[in-house]
Predict the structure.
Amino acid sequence: MDRTTFNACGRHFPRAQWLGLALGAALWLTPAGLGDLLGQAAWAGPPRVRFDVSYVVSCRDVTPPEFGVLNPGERLVEAAFHISTLLEGGSEEELSQLFFQIENPDKTLRIVDHLPRTELTSQYAGTIAVEKRREGGASIGVAAKPNLEVVSLNASAEASTKRGVNMRYELLPPQELLAASGTLDRERGVYFKLKPSTQTSLEGAHQFVCLLRVPVQWRGDVVHVHCRAEGIRRGLWRSLDSREVCGTGSFLVTLYLEGDEEARRAVGHLVRCEERMRRLLAEHRSSVVEAMYASQVPGLAAWRSAMDAQPPGELMAWVLSSQRSEGELQRLPSPVVQTLAELRRAAALVRQMNGSLAHQQMVDADHPRPR
């Protein structure tokens, strides 16, 4: 463009518009252009996820005869855990992972097997065909056309060679992780990881099945289920994207042997006591927080109770801790103290049903300690 044309265009496009066009072109040419910036909702936060778990699980006895012969003091039971995931906000496309962990606090059971196992998937239905072609050649030509007034003569000569190589082969489709699982703490716990896929949905109900190895006197038990969702917080550019936790949940889940009505009532009573304790802690949060810090600097307890927003899970862990003294418990509201006593009795009853005491007595009888 010469100066005359530029000046002519300048009369129709002021300098401010030229600068705007240049800036827009620069943004469009960058890896995270203006269209990408607006298209991916750059300022939106990560999705919000909420979890829910069934509080009582019926366990089916699946002990094969040969296992009972080789292990007379143990049995195998199957437990199916149903965990629901609700996407309360955001897009499921921004979910990067769901993590679930099931652990036994009393260490009275072992995880023999579990489903789902680690699984890989691909978005391609079959193998991928690849074809490569390479061609090469050389040519030379000569042409002559004399321009004579009387006679017109055409003469030409050409020589060429051409060669090509074709390669065809097939590749296995690339695999992506769909689910991962494994045991923890010497088979006392198990974890599951779920990844997003175009073929499945992370939202909804998920079933996790565990094969448990328990004492033969086992009638019921308690496990803790921890859930965590991780999502992507979009930055101004893709290089500024970050992964963060967008939902958590911890649940007390009770187990009982199928057909044992007494065990079912016992674990149900424990669940009701635990739910009532959570409601009371939410109602008397300020009083419980004040009791937590009452033994520290005078005046600090009242300030922390007004300013500190302790999560319900931390309040529950502090109240249930075996390290709490009688003096600390007496500072709690009376409804919390009464429910705590009932909760401990219910937990002790369920602990008697997991067979750990009888199993330990049998082990001590078979292997007496030297004096």
Q: What stands out?
A: Residues 4 and 369 are 105 Å apart (CA to CA). Confidence is low (pLDDT under 50) at residues 37-42. Residues 128-171 form one domain.
